[in-house]
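Q: Please design a sequence for this.
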């Protein structure tokens, strides 16, 4: 081999081996979540493997091997034959409302693997893969990935950072959540502001059915969901329109921006929540950029290309490009109002 730098090669191999370890952990983490192993371990640990198996109704030989893999991954703590979750491990794997619960990331990774044949063919044709034709439960995986961020920031930080919006919501406003998916964001807002009325639009019928079922299960009467496209949904005269992690998925986000402008009333606000990104590839070479560029290749770009226009902004469009798209719809002012490790929030008026 010529020009091979041994040190750099060893670093790369070490790094890729670590990545493969993460990739093969996807089914194990999802089994641990689905069978309640993390939650049970949090509750009863430190315990021996057989005790966890017994308490969770699982076969001891499988649980022993699973725990060994988890300990080797650093996802479970092991000491003198006893297994437990540290407080930090519990926040990531066993507490659904923790801001750093990352189980949804593993669900999304599984859905991306399932998407491979369709997206691989699309690389050759340049066509899209429609949102509804993607992996088994792409919708559930994505909803779960974003859930911790919404639960911990939407009502507490993102809405208050908008100019005058919380006062309107408290008094009683009309709100549309466009591209609402399973409606988690809509439902969180509906719970927090009982005097306001919320409508969630999404062009995916299955997502609307799931969102409706969630709202019903919560007993909410100030929220409903309708099938509708961002570029031509029916409603008018909204005080606030929100878009959560979906503008870049749209085929024609400029047409959506123009339609949303018309659907707002005088003084109305558009809140655009998008994946966190800087404006250049160089600045996005980091773990979050890696996650989002990968998801964008397998989910977001195919979703956009499957629609009219197919602008395919990508999940790492960044503030500058997003601002151009938003302003093309007739919005005069665009302001970055909040940032989390995974999301940025723009206010458009
Ligand atoms: C990544 S998901 C986000 C869903 C939800 N807002 C959330 O944060 O969990 C993107 C959503 O955009 C919807 N979508 C994409 N293009 C759309 C369009 N043109 N009109 C309406 N919804 C659209 C998809 O159906 C999907 O539910």
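A: Design:
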């Amino acid at each position: 081999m010529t020009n091979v730098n041994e040190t750099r090669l060893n670093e790369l191999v070490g790094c890729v081996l670590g990545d493969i370890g993460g990739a093969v952990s996807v089914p194990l983490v999802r089994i641990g979540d689905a069978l309640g192993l993390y939650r049970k371990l949090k509750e009863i640990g430190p315990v021996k493997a057989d005790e966890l198996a017994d308490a969770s109704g699982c076969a001891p030989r499988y649980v022993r091997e699973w725990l060994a893999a988890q300990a080797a991954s650093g996802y479970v703590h092991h000491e003198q034959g006893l297994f437990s979750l540290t407080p930090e491990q519990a926040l990531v794997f066993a507490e659904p409302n923790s801001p750093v619960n990352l189980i949804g990331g593993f669900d999304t990774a599984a859905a991306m693997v399932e998407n491979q044949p369709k997206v691989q063919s699309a690389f050759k044709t340049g066509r899209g893969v429609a949102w509804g034709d993607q992996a088994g439960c792409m919708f559930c995986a994505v909803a779960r990935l974003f859930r911790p961020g919404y639960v911990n920031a939407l009502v507490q930080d993102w809405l208050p950072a908008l100019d005058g919006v919380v006062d309107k919501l408290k008094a009683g406003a009309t709100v549309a959540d466009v591209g609402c998916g399973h409606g988690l964001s809509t439902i969180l807002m509906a719970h927090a502001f009982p005097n306001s009325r919320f409508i969630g639009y999404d062009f995916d019928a299955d997502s609307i059915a799931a969102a409706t079922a969630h709202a019903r299960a919560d007993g909410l009467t100030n929220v409903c969901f309708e099938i509708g496209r961002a570029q031509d949904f029916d409603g008018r005269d909204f005080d606030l329109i929100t878009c959560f992690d979906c503008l870049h998925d749209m085929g024609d986000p400029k047409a959506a921006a123009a339609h949303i402008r018309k659907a707002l009333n005088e003084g109305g606000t558009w809140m655009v929540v998008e994946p966190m990104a800087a404006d250049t590839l160089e600045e996005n070479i980091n773990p979050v950029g890696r996650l989002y560029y990968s998801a964008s290749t397998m989910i977001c770009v195919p979703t956009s290309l499957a629609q009219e226009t197919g602008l395919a902004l990508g999940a790492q469009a960044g503030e500058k490009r997003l601002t151009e798209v938003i302003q093309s719809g007739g919005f005069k002012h665009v302001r970055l109002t909040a940032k989390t490790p995974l999301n940025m929030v723009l206010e458009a008026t």
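Q: Thanks. Anything notable?
A: Residues 131, 142-143, 146, 179-181, 184-185, 202-204, 207, 229-230, 244-246, 249-251, 303, 307 surround S-adenosylmethionine (CB under 6 Å). The longest helix spans residues 6-34.
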